[in-house]
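Chapter review: from sequence to fold.
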Amino acid sequence: MTGFYHDGNRQFQDRYDTRRLADRLEDRFLTTVEFDEGDRALIEASDMFFLATVDPDGQPTCSYKGGDPGFVRVLDDRTLGFPNYDGNGMYLSIGNLSVNPRVGMLFIDFSTPKRLRVEGVASITLGDPLVAEYPEAQFVVRVEATRIYPNCSRYIHRMELVERSRFVPHRQCETPVPDWKRTDWASDVLPEGDPARPPEAG
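The token string follows.
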């Protein structure tokens, strides 16, 4: 066993008699920290995932990250990369991982269904050459996996895609401006160079 569980996990495993099952799952699915072909296929077909981070005080947050299929790339057997696009300027997740690089990523295929957890250590290198692969990306986040494991899919609701977001940047295509950036409370404090920034804002 790899020491995957802590006392809190064990308390509930013992209460509900699942310790043997939990140990079997650890032995079966956490024997290696490398992406296999199934992991790669799920990740690189995903157009979204959930990212969990923790601030310096231990306060967690979970954010949704979306893009076109393939926006998260498996760069090698243990490393993922994904772009950071323009958002609301708060940088909650990104700020968190800059002070505590440990992250959790949850990928869900709602059509199959399947889900995959990736836990690891994130890093940002400004000027990363991978940023050129993503139109309008501010930078790329790389995550070196420390744990990769599937989850039971029985409670995943089966859903179908209706429409992908028109705000995902594409080459040779102007990205629309979200309406909230043109509101009175936001338009005068947008960053320099933002296409929604009014000329009178300087």
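Two observations follow directly from the output. The helical segments are 7-15, 19-29, 37-45, 92-99, 184-187. Residues 33-150 form a domain with the Pnp Oxidase; Chain A fold (CATH 2.30.110.10).
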